[in-house]
Each structure stands twice: as structure tokens, then as C-alpha cells.
User: Which sequence fits this backbone?
């Protein structure tokens, strides 16, 4: 399998849509090719992000706001979170 | 789950939805079939009447486009 062929298998590889033979051939190529492993590393976190879209409701449950306010400042809060909340018009949620 | 972690997940889900909205309809369709409906690549080829190689490369480029959109929107992983 060439790098070009391997890369075109990475989508199905990451999402679990390859045949067992394709899966094995792609894995064998990845074991000996650092460039393709780097390409894989870019993509392999995406299923977890897509899982969030499946699991999470489009709106926060009403009880969440109260618990966020009650929790107060959190050391693991990330700045991007506040920026994203503002961008989504959820600023009241964070401000309390 | 702690409230802050739960909020983090909700916001991340919204940002990922926004990233999906930025993709072309072809790429959205590919992720819908390959991920949300869980179809094998060969099943997608049959359903869309496309060569298997086209489905493979389109799935790959759909994920690349999603990665780029997530990066642009600041998803931090």
C-alpha cells in the first residue's frame, strides 16, 4: 500500500468503515510510516467530538445554569469556553 | 459530571455543530452516512452509486475539512 492509498483509507479507518482486509493493510502501512501516522493523529480525535453532537441536547438543561453558578470559578475552566459561550449567545449562563 | 465539565461538553458540542455546518454538502453527507448512520465504505458506495475509491477519498477529505473547521473555531483537541 502506498502512502496515497493509505491516506485515502484513513477516513474509513478512523470511522470504522473498512473491510477487515483494508483495515489490516492500512494498519500495517501505519506501523511503518511516520508521515501517515501524523496524518492519522490529526483525525483520530474527531469521532469523540462527533460523539458529543450525538449525545448532547442543543440547549443546556435549565438546572445546569444553577449548578454552574453554584460551582463558582473553576481552576479547570478554559478561556475558550467563555469565548465560545459568548459567541453562542450563552453569556447569561456564565455571568449568572 | 461536574457542572463545569458538563457545560464544557455542551459548548464543545455546539462548536462541533458549527464546524459541521461549514462543510460542503458532499462532506456533510459523507459524515452522516459513515459516522452517524454507521455505514461501511462499501455500503456507501452502493447507496450513492459511486466508485469505492471515491467514497474512501471523500470520507478522508470530509474528516480533514472537519478538523480544519474545528481548529478555526477553537476546539482545543
Assistant:
Amino acid at each position: 500500500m502506498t502512502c496515497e492509498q493509505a491516506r485515502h483509507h484513513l477516513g474509513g479507518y478512523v470511522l470504522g468503515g473498512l473491510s477487515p482486509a483494508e483495515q489490516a493493510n492500512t494498519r500495517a502501512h501505519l506501523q511503518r510510516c511516520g508521515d501517515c501516522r501524523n496524518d492519522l493523529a490529526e483525525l483520530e480525535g474527531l469521532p469523540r467530538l462527533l460523539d458529543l453532537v450525538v449525545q448532547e441536547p442543543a440547549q443546556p438543561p435549565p438546572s445546569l445554569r444553577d449548578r454552574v453558578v453554584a460551582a463558582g470559578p473553576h481552576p479547570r475552566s478554559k478561556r475558550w469556553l467563555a469565548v465560545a459561550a459568548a459567541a453562542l449567545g450563552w453569556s447569561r449562563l456564565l455571568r449568572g | 459530571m461536574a457542572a463545569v465539565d458538563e457545560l464544557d461538553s455542551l459548548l464543545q458540542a455546539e462548536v462541533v455543530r458549527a464546524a459541521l455546518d461549514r462543510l460542503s454538502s458532499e462532506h456533510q453527507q459523507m459524515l452522516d452516512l459513515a459516522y452517524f448512520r454507521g455505514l461501511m465504505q462499501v455500503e456507501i458506495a452502493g447507496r450513492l452509486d459511486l466508485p469505492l475509491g471515491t467514497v474512501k477519498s471523500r470520507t478522508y477529505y470530509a474528516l480533514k475539512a472537519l478538523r480544519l473547521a474545528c481548529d478555526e473555531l477553537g476546539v482545543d483537541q
Notes: Chain B has four helices and no strands. The helical segments of chain B are 3-21, 25-36, 41-48, 52-72.
